[in-house]
Specification:
- The chain contains seven helices and eight strands.
- It has helices spanning 2-20, 31-43, 67-76, 87-90, 100-120, 165-175, 214-259; strands at 22-29, 48-52, 58-63, 125-133, 148-155, 184-190, 204-207, 210-213.
- A hairpin with a 5-residue loop joins strand 2 (48-52) and strand 3.
- Helix 1 (2-20) runs antiparallel to helix 7.
- The radius of gyration is 31 Å and the shape is elongated.
- The two termini are 37 Å apart.
């Protein structure tokens, strides 16, 4: 039982030391998004891992010393993806009756969110926003104002966005009733070149026969040193306990032998 307790104490100490060197980067992530973030960080030499939360969501963690660098890398890669509202969440009734103005505003916002999410799913698009303008329903107005939409796209620098603009305009125009192809404008902006386009190879260093990233060597040394200190402390405690118990038993047996 004593050996089992010692083993669990060593495991707990190692877990505490490992966790103390980690920092949570993002939480409440889906599996696909967490995998993309970890893969992007590893490709750029950042030691990253994911952990499962109690609710099944995932958390991405990195070394504390690499936290700022990891945030910048993910921001340049457009991760995590922006969360857009759905039509169901926009039209979730909070009151009994919604006014026509409220319903119209909700409809415009819902269309913008749905189209923004669709455009942002295109490969090479880091972020996208679609702004929709719908004319008022005034039957007395002679010259009706046509609907229009503007699309802002932030994309990777090596993406041929000009070939995608006609497809994006068609997608937006077909997604809104009364909107024509000519009334859709697209404004593309290329993200600045970064190490994401040509990631530097990660440097590995051997430590106790194990190859690991340079940034992880110092942490491994601290963990190894901490474990050695814990083992020595436990060994000293066990030795002291053993000799103390042995001395007590010897002291208890001496009076019995003298009476004989």
């Amino acid at each position: 039982m004593r050996h089992i307790a010692i083993r669990w104490m060593i495991i707990a100490a190692a877990a505490i030391l490992l966790q103390a060197c980690k920092a949570e980067l993002y939480s409440n992530l889906g599996e696909r998004e967490a995998n993309m973030m970890v893969a992007t960080l590893l490709a750029n030499g950042i030691s990253a891992s994911r952990t499962v939360q109690k609710d099944g969501k995932l958390t991405v963690t990195v070394e504390k010393s690499q936290f700022a660098q990891a945030v910048n890398i993910l921001s340049e890669a457009g991760l995590p993806k922006e969360q857009f509202a759905t039509i169901g969440s926009v039209f979730k009734q909070e009151g009994l009756v919604a006014s026509p103005v409220q319903e119209r505003a909700q409809m415009i916002y819902a269309l913008s969110e749905e189209l923004s999410r669709t455009v942002s799913e295109i490969d090479g698009v880091l972020s996208a926003r679609v702004h929709v303008v719908l004319p008022g329903n005034d039957p007395l107005q002679r010259n009706a104002v046509p609907a229009s939409a503007s699309v802002f796209i932030r994309h990777e620098p090596n993406l041929d966005i000009n070939a995608l603009i006609p497809q994006i305009k068609t997608l937006v125009a077909n997604g809104i009733a009364g909107l024509t192809y000519e009334k859709v404008s697209v404004v593309p902006v290329a993200a600045p070149p970064s190490r994401l386009s040509a990631p530097a190879p990660a440097k590995l260093t051997p430590f106790l026969g194990v190859w690991m990233l340079d940034a992880s060597v110092s942490r491994a040394m601290w963990i190894f040193g901490g474990l050695v200190a814990i083992i020595l402390a436990l060994g000293g405690t066990l030795a002291f306990t053993f000799w103390r118990d042995r001395g007590r038993k010897t002291y208890q047996l001496e009076p019995i032998s003298s009476n004989k």
